[in-house]
Amino acid sequence: MNEANNKTAQRGRPNRISREIIARAALDMGIQDATLMGVAKKLKVDRSSLYHHVKSRDDVIQLAAEIAVKDLQWQAPADVSWREELIILTDSLWQLYAQHPGLAQVVQQAKVTPIEGIHAFSESVIRLQQKGFSLNDAVVSVDLLVDMVCDSFLGWWSTDIVEANGLLRKERLITLWQQQADLHPNRAEPINTMVAIMQAGSLQWWVNKRDLILDGIALRLDAAK
After folding, report:
1. Cα–Cα distances in Å, from 192 out to 157, 183, 186, 189, 209?
2. What is the pLDDT of residue 35?
3. Is the dihedral of CA 93, 94, 97, 98 positive or negative?
4. Global pTM?
5. Dihedral (CA of 44, 45, 46, 48) sign
6. What is the sign, positive or negative, of the torsion defined by CA atoms of 203, 214, 88, 137?
């Protein structure tokens, strides 16, 4: 009788984990550091328990990316200009990659393709069409900026790696560029300008690139009128 009651209680006991809980644990750890063993330890369960919900680490990363993109607040108010629309979109993506280390890498390498990202892309295109873009220009503009966010973020992230000498890679690069400016005075101005960009930080670096692209889009739109 007691054995039967115990079995009933076990069957009725709620699961401590789920696919979403596992994926969110991976996001909390950072996708680049998340392993099945690490996730199991974080959730205080046996690694074998995870396999009741996920197939592999790749499965976890795919789901984690879906959740991260789904949670992203990227939609601009309906009454903003197309330029503000794209600024909000791309700045939100930058923050997404900063919040979830490793996400930009797996997206760039096409290891994951969040379905939520596909739908967000199409919605962004439609919103630009409603603001006067042709379908082709809207698709190219969103695709270009989304790619640029990822590439630029990874470019900056790579300079924040600590090298064997204990210094940031960025510090070594800045020193190298400054040395070349000193050795070649006729080229010092553009070299030092790049040094200033590296010293200003990642956000300003991205804003400079983004605004140049947006200015180019504006010229294309004016030419099409």
Report:
1. 21, 12, 11, 5, 17
2. 92
3. negative
4. 0.80
5. negative
6. negative
